[in-house]
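Exercise: predict the fold of this chain.
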Amino acid sequence: MKLLAYLKINIKGLIKEFPAFLLSYGIYPIIIALVMGYMQKDLFTPTINNPIFSVIIQDEDNTVQSENLVNFLNSEEMSNIMTVKTSPEEKYDYTIRIPQGYEDSLLGNNSTPIKVEAEEKASTTMGNILMNIIDKYNEEISQGLVIYRNIENMPISPEEKENLILEISNILTTAYTTNPIKNNIHNVRKSLNSYEYYSITFLSFAFIIFMMAVISSDALEKERGIYHRIMSTSMTRLQYFNYGFASNYLTIIVANIIYIFAYRITGLSFQGPLPLLLLIILVQSLLITGVGTLISTIFKKKYGLPLIQILLIVQMVFGGMLGPITKFNTNKTVAFLSKIKLDILFSNTYRNYLLDGTISSISNYLFIMVGISLFLYILNILAVQMKWGVSK
């Protein structure tokens, strides 16, 4: 009952301060994201007419089916993601080698796989996706050719054979429009746009600032004597900590919801399954509460605020400013520094949510955050019970 009374007071405070919360976590971040997102939108998702990588094709089979494969790779659909170079003297990312015996392998007479050879700086992931697209194409073509051969051996009239062959030909000529290949092409194109990127980046800044508010609030209670008056009642130190923890958790959830749904309602970001989004909010808020409370419990205001300020500077440099730079700067030092992110669990969870939108894509990060949160809560309990940390 004491907890409910404590939360009731906290809710009244949230209602009273809601306009300030809405301005700080809803309106202001949206304005900043609109400005930054618009100014740097060209650094993010490439346009549909801007291929991602280039290839050169070496046809060693020189058969009808190898020519069909070359035509497929030069098709309009594939040109959205890659450019086919005609000369080895030009710069390219991958070599697609069609070996001799390729056509026979489609008929099941032998096993002659196509090779995709990546150049030194080419992406292995993109190479695997390209190979997967070719495999899907070969699978459908091979099935069609086998069916075609079986039709020739069927005891039916020439007219029926001709009709069946015509159907198979239509399937072969439009193989790249089938779902498996379309899905692979879509996966190559999938990436965050500028507004989605900054919606994740600014979220980390918002909660680092909120942790500063938590530390200041705890210090203010002690400075005004509120803590000592509460401790003079029947409430234990552990109860006081748990009530404060629950209160902070609720406040962070509210701030998180305001921030996330401001982007969702405006259509700028977080346009995925609602249940998954709420689950992320609950888990992320728990971790933020654990970190902020531990710093407040052990370091107090004297060292806690400077520590959080350092974290804010580090996050601004490594988590937000260097991210877009890697879009056009290939310097290895910049690339390495841009990977040092204090919010990697948060950013990767939301990134996978936006790109995939499935529980399997975020489950590992959620489990890690829950595990860390439990560990931090235990540390908090020990710190309270054993009076760890500085005295002021």
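Check your answer against the key: The mean pLDDT is 76.
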